[in-house]
Amino acid sequence: MRKLRLEKKSTSSGLSILLNSLLFVALALVFCGFIIGAVGFHPLEVYGKMFSKAFLSSRGIRKAIESGLPLMLCGLGVSVAFRMNLNNIGAEGQYAVGAIFGAAFALYGPKLPGIAGILALAVCCFAGGALWALLSAAPKAFWDVDESITTLMLNYIALILLSYLCLGPWKAKGQNVGQTEKIADSLALPEIPGLKISVAFPVVILIALLLFFFYKYTVSGYQINVIGKSLTAARYAGINIKKNILLVLALSGGLAGLAGFVQYAGITGRVQENMPNNAGYTGIVIAYLSRFNPLVVIIVSILFAGLQNSSATVQVMGVPAQIATMMQGAIMIIVIAGDFFQRYKIVSVKKGGRAS
Predict the structure, then answer these.
(1) Closest CA to 265 of 205, 186, 197
(2) How far is residue 146 from each of residues 60, 125, 131, 139, 174, measured CA to CA in Å?
(3) How far is it, in rounded angstroms, from Cα 48 to Cα 307?
């Protein structure tokens, strides 16, 4: 009598992983194409319209980069935690609290000149996200409380607090929507001359590069990788797991808090009640699709932002706006399924015998 079981494959090459991801992204697009066709539209026409609007014009690329900045930072933050097998589901709330701390500094803090004020604003946003993440990190480190639940629950508290402030004491005079006064010009992030792209973009790329080298060439990065692969091995090696949980979740939350900084100081110029707009949750998808590689997070974030922006374009054709959301979900599920088959294989074994 035979039975089937899963068996872990040997380590795959980088090229194999890339080709596997591309294959399953293509399968996801084929699947979405059937859905688009089923609701009465030509899939290739819809895809062509979406792609040309988002990526074949300088304006579309600029918009994709601009919209992708918060996604990049949320994706980078979430991937930092996931590398150590910590499930930070709270990037949405950490983003919101980062924006709250930034607005508090802009509204009530000292008026610092030039770059000093912008740096202080960034530090406040980072600190807000980090402190919010530490509310989950401490119970995890000292009492092994599931961080997935606490980070998720804290999202709702952060979003309610943001909504209260933007609709209440911080609401700008004469506004019909929940948002603060416009940020002072001295705190606003400038654009790169000639490109009309916020200087936040090269800064985020620099953060991704620093994370890449941090993982590869520092002791803390090595410890994070060891803990992520095996807690038993980490304990045997004498690695301080509690300290690393606090460090990693604080860094993860701080990066998500910086999403509030780039949105506030570089894009909207105001803190708004709906500011996170699901960027924290989308960052989880981006982190998984990027396989927690900080450089790939940048690319995937731009692609996702372009996909979101192009949904308005196809609405003119009569295509439902939810098509873009469906495509994101399909890509995530199908690529994760592809990753599973990349890591495991199904083998047939004799009962009580060896695999064949």
Answers:
(1) 186
(2) 41, 25, 18, 8, 44
(3) 12
